[in-house]
Amino acid sequence: MKAKHQRLTLALLGVAAVIAAGVLALSALKDQASFFYAPGDVKKDGLPLGRFVRLGGMVADKSIVKLPDGVSIRFVVTDGVATVPVLFKGIAPDLFREKSGVVAEGEFQRDGSFTASNLLAKHDEKYMPPEIAGKMHETKTLKE
Amino acid sequence: MIAEAGLAALWLAAALALMQLAIAAIGVRRVMAEPDFQTELSGHLLAAVRPVAIVQGVLALLAMVLLITVFVRTDMSVLLVAENSHSEKPLLYKFAGAWGNHEGSMLLWVTILGVAGAAVAIFERSLARATLIATLGAQAMIALGFYAFLLFSSNPFTRLDPAPVDGQGLNPLLQDPGLAFHPPTLYIGYVGISVAFSFAVGALVTRDVGPAFARAMRPWVLGAWIFLTLGITAGSYWAYYELGWGGWWFWDPVENASLMPWLAATALLHSVTVLATRDGLRAWTIMLAVVAFSMSMIGTFLVRSGILTSVHAFAVDPERGSFILALLAIYIGGALLLFAARVGTVRAGNTFDLVSREGALVANNLLLSVILGIVLIGTLYPIIAAGFGTQLSVGPPFFNKAAGPVALLLVAIMAAGPLLRWRRDEAKALVARMAIPIAATVVALAGFLIFAPGIDLLPLLGLALAAGLAAASVAPLWGRNLRRTPLFTYGMVISHLGIAVSLAGMASDSAFTQATLVAARVGEPQRVGPYSVTLDGIAPVIGPNWSALEAHLSARRGSGAAIQLRPQARFFSNPVTSTSESAIATMLDGQLYTVIGQPDGAGRWQLRLWWKPFVTLIWAGGALIALGGVLSLLGRWLRERRARGREAEA
């Protein structure tokens, strides 16, 4: 093979690899990117059923209920526009508490409730997930 | 006074960097005009630029030492200390806490950059003089940008008046011995890549791309890569035991920010070898050096701009983000322009057949680039989407699905590569040499299918390929005189073996992990994997700056002796935070991982238990990969020293 041809082959291979990566990535992204919802979005856009999504907002006051099995809890997420009841089985993060921001990862159920497989709470007192801050700003319920 | 001295050292270092850049820029022009690079003039210029680079490194180091001093003394009149430290904090975290914040960590970055530049000035002897001058110039240019960033938008030495009585403390998640080790290691890796980048820029400027240049660049790439490997491995283990989620890799953007430079550096490491031994892949190697540095800049941007929310993002300040983004655009854009302008003058290197060592290395480079592309898309997509008002996150399902298959293909090629001859080889001969690894893969596959049915496809393939790769990676040693085999061959063998070991650990973790979540009463045994775990009681504990509830667990396997585990729920007062400290028992065949949650008010405690067979192989593999790098580095150095000795005799 001549040097010139070799360069061309390598360049073509490189381009092919990049395209393959792009196609692979984008097709996977379409299924796998998990979208962020606030309770108000669900009211507006309908339930995103059968998808892994994030639900974010504030944990409503006096809404955390411990279930008898000792490892599950129910609570309500609100953004000031609407509320969503959430069921979570697991150890809640240390900073998960009422009247505080939370992001729940999981799926919506047909009845409009949300089953969370993971909860993300803020890392420290000052921290607020930007998604929540953004959404809160939109609905203008953040009193600070 | 100490803070002011630190600031003065920074300004002086910045001035020296400017001087270094000026000497290099003017000097290289003059030297290039002469017929030969190794003239007297280049010697004089080098004699001028070397000390400047060294003193600049020393000054940056001095600034870092002074910052550590104010942290250790807990000087509350320094804003950074007041915001991030506390007098009751243990000494180790006062020390390491100096870089547990935005400004301090950027100073650490710059310090390592300065020291790396000094190291190049002191130790680099094999590079052509003109190229070395240009390299030091490029290094000074990178440093200047970061000095500007520190001095104008992230000054770590700002005073606070009046000084508060006490500070706000350090994020408890960072209060771990890992803080002393993980950031410096990773930074040495990140910044080491900047040296490779400066070499590439230097060689482009002086049109010096060739095997000699590659041999000079290789140890620096290798060194950076070793530190990156160690930093990622340490970071992964830290996240594993500190976060209490039982996971070792979360595809978190900050993790990706360290993985991307590693992928690029790994590709660079292999292509620079092709350039050094076979004089091939010239332009590609230069391009990879630019890409690798871009990735470490993007990593710095992602982590330090506050665009991401994580324990790594200390400050959310749009001005800083824009500053780093501007630096990124200038360096990468500039390097790409230079590349575009000069790539035509880079002569085509040697050619080779598709079935050859070079061919396998090209495939390695392409696949690594594909993985890099996938990780990059997955990491940046949410940020770009957020710019268009869509909020979404890309998590493990995406990365595993998209990058997993490519990684397994890469492993297969990795097994074959070292068994191929340079330039040209026969596919048939390769199959013969691969007989044992292929057999190992098939046997492992069949074994797992029969004895452990129901494993997901990806972990199953991972386990089988790990067996094959382990066999293939030691294959280059078969039939060789082991005592006369060069050290760098051992390095390659051990690094590749490390990948196999790590892969086996990852696959085993995802295939065989057993987890349980229970509300446990005292005395009630809980089963996880082969263990029966009993909660014996809960007791309060007091630490230096925290108090905790500690669970006393005893774990028994069959009729064996009980192992004691003590997971804690800790409460910090400065700042007010609670964390959970997992307790892990390491056995030869895996780890028992325990976390304590909340009480339910009726005498039960939440317990989360995992049995993770062979999970430790993940980090043991990482250590092996780095060890292989060290052996390679040592081997090349010994060989070069011997060669120089022979030259001196002749």
UniProtKB/TrEMBL annotation, chain A:
Residues 1-7 are cytoplasmic. It holds the Pfam family CcmE. InterPro entries: CcmE, CcmE-like_sf, NA-bd_OB-fold. It comes from the Bacteria. The keyword Transmembrane helix applies. Heme binds at H123, Y127. The keyword Iron applies. Keywords: Cell membrane, Cytochrome c-type biogenesis, Heme, Iron, Membrane, Metal-binding, Signal-anchor, Transmembrane, Transmembrane helix. Transmembrane segments: none annotated. It is found in: Cell membrane; Membrane. Gene3D superfamilies: Nucleic acid-binding proteins (2.40.50.140). It is a single-pass type II membrane protein. Residues 29-144 are extracellular. Heme chaperone required for the biogenesis of c-type cytochromes. Transiently binds heme delivered by CcmC and transfers the heme to apo-cytochromes in a process facilitated by CcmF and CcmH. NCBIfam families: PRK13254.1-1 (NF009727), PRK13254.1-5 (NF009731). Belongs to the CcmE/CycJ family. HAMAP family: CcmE (MF_01959). This is Cytochrome c-type biogenesis protein CcmE. It comes from Sphingomonas immobilis.
Automatic annotation (TrEMBL), chain B:
Residues 325-636 form the Cytochrome c-type biogenesis protein CcmF C-terminal domain. The keyword Transmembrane applies. It comes from the Bacteria. It is a multi-pass membrane protein. One of its GO terms (molecular function) is lyase activity. Residues 99-305 form the Cytochrome c assembly protein domain. Keywords: Cell inner membrane, Cell membrane, Cytochrome c-type biogenesis, Lyase, Membrane, Transmembrane, Transmembrane helix. Pfam families: CcmF_C, Cytochrom_C_asm. Its main location: membrane. InterPro entries: CcmF_C, Cyt_c_assembly, Cyt_c_biogenesis, Cyt_c_biogenesis_CcmF. The chain crosses the membrane at residues 6-28, 49-72, 106-123, 130-152, 187-207, 219-239, 259-276, 283-303, 323-345, 366-390, 402-422, 434-452, 458-478, 487-507, 614-634. It is found in: Cell inner membrane. The keyword Lyase applies. Required for the biogenesis of c-type cytochromes. Possible subunit of a heme lyase. Belongs to the CcmF/CycK/Ccl1/NrfE/CcsA family. This is Heme lyase CcmF/NrfE family subunit. It comes from Sphingomonas immobilis.
